[in-house]
Amino acid sequence: MLRMAEPIIHHRHPEFAELFTRVCGNLRYVFQTKHEVFTLTSSGTGAMEAVVCNIHSPGETALYVNGGKFGERWGEILRAYGINAVEVKVEWGDSVLPRHIEAALEEHPHAKAVYLTHSETSTGAATDVRAIARIAGRRGDVLTIVDGITAVGAMELRMDEWGIDCVVTGSQKGLMIPPGLAFVAVSPKAWERVKSSRLPRYYFDLRAAQKALEANDTPWTPAISLVVGLDAALTMIRQEGIERVWARHARLGTALRAAVQAVGLQILAKEPSNALTAIRIPESVDSGKFSTLLKKTYGITAAGGQGHLAGRIVRISHLGYYDELDMVAVISAIEMALTDCGFVFERGAGIRAAQESFARHSS
Ligand SMILES: Cc1ncc(COP(=O)(O)O)c(C=O)c1O
Questions:
Q1: Residue 287 CB–ligand 1 contact under 6 Å
Q2: Looking at residues 200-223, what average pLDDT do you find?
Q3: What's the whole-number mean pLDDT along residues 173-193?
Q4: Residue 363 has pLDDT above 80, yes or no
Q5: Which ligand 1 atom is the nearest neighbour of the CA of 179?
Q6: In the chain, at which end, N or C, are there fewer CB atoms within 10 A of the end residue's CB?
Q7: 229 with 246, same domain?
């Protein structure tokens, strides 16, 4: 990542064009698509907004799944653009079932798109985007839009093969570089919508991004140092191989879940994401004290719950540049912080469960 400290190159210079061509090719590999992946300079939410304002026209209807903070955000963005946003609500921690989407599409036959969150970061729940894309795809006119912000580069996602129309992500998650870049991958079916959309857009106009891409460039000055860092990060992913990257995340997630259960705690999500794990904190444990101990005493940063889950869960991410020994250190810290909080369990049970899980799912 030291490459990000190098002197800035000019983005209208052939040196950038060469680097950006390689980056775009590697992004297509990570998203598993042959089509364009646009690079925007913004956080992940910018890419979510870019999809909405590029594929809709005023007054259209779209479905979105609210199973957490980020699913809820799709609804907020859609409404900000005057789209009739129909919520498919699931309990936070649960995952929407394909038949719920089928029923919602029956009820709203004019819906133009279904908005999903592959890995709902506020709950650690995963969505079966593949099955839902199949259902939506049967309806001809419905696009499947996936927030892949904690999923891309962590969980199996095959955009073209699974018939997904747009996938968005941000630079700071599975792509392992600092925040500041966001990405939108667009299928040919979604591109037809981009061409006919009548919503206002300027900075995030994907038609401008497409035109610039023809010259291996972006329409506006990109966060050049981040693009340089991304080149290095994508090269790492390419060298490991995307399937192995997914398998490593699955191995880490499986081991942490086994460890958490072995110490007597519960996982919030019924269908857990492999990018992060939300652990239910028992009432006998002060979640604030637990998180502070993890951070200040053991050097592990964990996130608390959002919305009504505040104080009730702790979220541990295992995303990106992360291996088995990192996970063992995290589990040790969890065990020690739990002990410090007075929680009674068999010490070492989590570490043992994780090691057994690693042995069962060796790389
Ligand atoms: C699933 C998901 N969607 C959307 C976002 C918003 O991304 P950003 O904060 O980069 O705008 C996040 C951020 O954590 C996320 O995890």
A1: no
A2: 96
A3: 98
A4: no
A5: 10
A6: C
A7: no
> SS3 for the chain, per residue?
CHHHHCCCCCCCCHHHHHHHHHHHHHHHHHHCCCCCEEEEECCHHHHHHHHHHHHCCCCCEEEEEECCHHHHHHHHHHHHCCCEEEEEECCECECCCHHHHHHHHHHCCCEEEEEEECEECCCCEECCHHHHHHHHHCCCCCEEEEECCCCCCCCCCCHHHHCCCEEEEECCCCCCCCCCEEEEEECHHHHHHHHHCCCCCCCCCHHHHHHHHCCCCCCCCCCHHHHHHHHHHHHHHHHHCHHHHHHHHHHHHHHHHHHHHHCCCEECCCCECCCEEEEECCCCCCHHHHHHHHHHHCCCCCEECCHHHCCCEEEEECCCCCCHHHHHHHHHHHHHHHHHCCCCCCCCHHHHHHHHHHHHCCC
CB 168 within 8 A of CB 146: yes
* Stretch 24-33: mean pLDDT: 98
Which CATH number goes with the domain that contains 269?
3.90.1150.10
Among 240, 275, 295, identify where a domain stops: 240
Residue-wise pLDDT for 81-102, tens only, equals 999 999 999 999 999 999 999 9
For the ranges 44-53, 227-236, 280-289, which has the lowest average pLDDT? 280-289
CA 298 to chain CA mean position, Å: 27
Q: Give the position, in ligand 1's atom list, of the atom nearest the Cα of 118.
A: 1
Indicate whether residue 223 lines ligand 1 (CB < 6 A).
Answer: no
State which of 240, 264, 299 marks the end of a domain. Answer: 240
Task: Evaluate whether 328 touches 351 at the Cβ level (below 8 Å).
Answer: yes
Do 170 and 46 fall within a single domain? yes
Segment 54-78, tens digit of pLDDT: 999 999 999 999 999 999 999 999 9
Ligand 1 within 6 A of 148 CB?
Answer: no
Is pTM beyond 0.85? Reply is yes
Contact call for residues 121 and 141 (beta carbons, < 8 A): no
Question: Considering only CA atoms, which residue is closest to atom 15 of ligand 1?
Answer: 149
The pLDDT of residue 1 is above 90: no
